[in-house]
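Hi, here's the filled form for the chain we discussed.

Project: internal
Contact: R.S.
Residues: 1074
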Amino acid sequence: MAAAGEEKKALQKSYSFDNVSFSQVDLHEVDIKYIGAIQKAMTTLSAELANDMAVFTADDMAKTVKQAGPRSLIQSGAMDTLKKLLADPATKQNAHTVIASLATTCNTLAEPLIVPLLPELLKDVAHKKAEIRTTAEGAIRDICENICPWGCRPILRMLYEGVKETKWQVKAVACKSIGSIAEKMPEAFARCLPEAMPVVSEAMWDTKADVKNAAADCMAKCCDAVSNRDIKPFVPALISAIKNPDEVSETVHKLSSTVFVQSVDSPALAITVPILLRGCQEKKTEIKRKVAVIVDNMSKLIDEPKEAKPFLPALMPEIERLAKEISDPEARTVCNKALKTLTNIQTAIAENEAAKAMPPDVCLAAILEVASATTPNAPMSDPTFSAFIEYIASTISSMINDLFFDEFEWKFVAVCPFLAPFMAESDATALCQTLLTRCFKEAMPKDVAEDDDDEGEDLCNCEFSLGYGAKILLNNTRLHLKRGMRYGVCGYNGCGKSTLMRAIANGQVDNFPPPDVLKTVYVEHDIQSDQAEMTIVDYVCAMVPDVDRNVIEQKLDEFGFVDDQAAPAWRKGNVSGLSGGWKMKLALCRAILMNADILLLDEPTNHLDVKNVAWLENFLISQTKVTSLIITHDSGFLDRVVTHIIHYEDNRKLKNYKGNLSAFVKRVPRAKTYYELSDENISFTFPEPGLLDGIKSKGKAIIKMENCTYTYPGRDKPTVRNVTLQASLSSRVAVIGPNGAGKSTIIKLLTGELKAEKGTVWKHPNMRIAYVAQHAFHHLEKHLEKTPNEYIQWRYAGGEDKEGLNKDARKISDEERKKMEEGQEIELENGKTEKLVVEDILSRRKLKSGYEYEIKWLRKTLEDNTWLPRDKLVEMGFEKLVNRMDEREALRLGTSGKALTAKQVEKVLGDMGLEAEFASHNRIQGLSGGQKVKVVLAAAMWEDPHILVLDEPTNYLDRDSLGALAAAIRTYNGGVIMISHNREFTGALCPETWLCDNGKLRREGESEGGDEKILAEDDPFNADKPDVKDAFGNVIKVSKKKKLAGKDLKKYKKMKEARRKRGEDVSDSMEDWD
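And the returned structure, exactly as it came back:
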């Protein structure tokens, strides 16, 4: 029941009952000789004695009590006599001596009886007699050094009251005693630190030097009890900052430079939160921002939300205040991020309120019931036994409140030693075990303990940490998998889901079973470029060389790869000719042939149509001997397939939840974002596309395809035939159809990635089109060593999109090149005709009805350049060069308001939801799939496109990012064309549908807003901008001056004339009109 780390620690510690004497026979009555000896000692101590004599008598009596047991103190009347001695000034010293002897000699045999006397002892440390003060302090010290560690909380509360006393001697001794407990039993004391810190901190400001010094020493010992290795080096600085407020900002600086790795618990929060609260009051924005960063980082490492509960009431309002008041928008964003993390913790606490605290009276009732059931011979009516079980109830109540259910600590420290005088070891341990089980069940929610199935074969149950570069993704977490189960791995984009899968596949996870014990296969649909031209059969044979070719062909046939050239998946065809959906099926076939124990499926539904998704669901469910780890953002797929959810918690831990996604969301309501397309947590901002010459309404076509046909090399049958379509600025089009129907091929023809063998593709000369491909990462494959910022700067350096240079529509064939190199009869300005060869097209200029282009002739100077119209150049065979010039000019117009600088590129990446840390300081190869999609999207939007084409945009994006993308598309003033099998996504955005089937296209529906006129004010470069930003980026609303006309203008002129006649100064400007 204990946490894994606690179990490990417990096993390393030595536990035994060597110093505990269990009762073999229940003797309700103590031997008369012991009673007589104790009564005689107490009679002697009732008179004034020399100190040596009192110590000797008390020690001798304590040894008798140790032999006779704790009942002897009650039955002899010693406890009643001791209280009288303590009340009489003449015998106080003797009473102190007895208490000290009982504490050091009898330990647990006397502890429940003498601890209640502590408040009286505290009063005596301020007695006017020095001797009494000395013995009282000694008795307190002996009690504090010999108590049960887990019983320290009730004792500490008595000491806190002592610190609040008016007499300085009581304050000083109370501080020393708190420090003594912290030093002697740090593990138990650390759990009490949240209560201790405010009390001791206040004492550090006492006017009495003795109290101040005692409190400072106590504070050092208290903070030393914290086991968090990340915090320990800063303890001296933290203590110093509590004493000296001027050091708060420097301490915050030091904390902000710490990489927090260890789990954060209430002790660590207890010593850092006071400094953070003071940091919130600092004047500098930099310090306030760093406070928010520290809060966010530490909060994400809290294993148990309940640990943070005492600190939220003070911390959350301060962070919320900073999020509203700080002038720097970036700092406010950081504060809002920290506030969101704290809110998640608060929500988790509310969700887990089923974890009940059990006060001492409830614990006492539980002990009595368990004792009656397990130990019928327990002396239930014995007053001594009653006192002892009340003490046990107080101790375990504190442990339950801390959710501390370590079996060893309960058995050997907190419970059995106090039961020993009343029963045999077997009875005591049975009672303790039953009590522990009952308290655990009553205190904890039913579904919290462990979500793994009790039954089934364990494949893996390992503890490990996982990081990438300097970033910690998972810290001391546990992965528990069973055979035949299907686990959905859930978490936000960038948390490390794909990294975990690749680490498992590459054997990089500590303590994970080796490949010869457990076979794992990473299923991905990206085929290496050197294998893309292999036939399907040859590819699988190369990947699984140990399997017979006939077996491979049989398995391929089962997966739908048939020996039919007309089929979409002809097994003798090249791998490169497969659609994305068929590539996924091929990867699954390969995995099954490799006899995998665990299938690692990263976005398996990407590129799959509805039919193939259903096939995949049935396939995975049928694999009763194969375990699946599945990453997908398809919530319906998770609901229908998985048996468990493995969730990335905010504290960098994995947690198993039994059931599908619906069951998971019921238990963790904040995870409902897995079902919703919400943009509450993240937002995308698309740029304005700008104006196009001759386009006065959003419904006018700016790109067209007419009767286009295309056949892939090596295929006899065209993939698409006679396709005709058009798009405008108002287009919102969903392209749908089964896998292999030609959807992506049509899009590639539209964007120029491919060139139609028949038909024409026209687009407005100044139109800019952005294309995010189905396999979006192909844009980034050659740039993995660059940061996203560096990639975009490289891509657009030189004034054109380098990614576009590889399009088929850009490539010049040998025939075209030969024609271009032929001389052309050109009439020069002097009227002569000369045969010239075009060297380059340098620029373009606008005519009334079109454009003409500046031509640089081979072996001619720039002075001989000639301007030729577009039609003439196309006739000469220079259509592709003319199109390239059009695209360069279009790009120049689209980016004329933006400089290709690191700062500007970082802003564009930020508009797509990619934080600056990833945008400018992390290489592309280290980004998650979702982050890479954002990079590709930002790169595409750099040129402010008029048409955005998205091929499977929902692949790799989490629900928050999908929500942000949907919101951005709704407000975008350009056209959008998207291919997606996610009907939820396209249905919410696209009123127009292009249905593809068997290579043909049919249009249904119509995009809205086609009649909307385009006004010049809509253009970002021509519009009046009423919003002005200050130095921090805050938007300031500026009201426009009212323009006067008609009656108002006449009235204004009359008013000015009247003012002139009165001799007033009147300006000639109209700016003074309000």
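Let me know if anything looks off before we file it.
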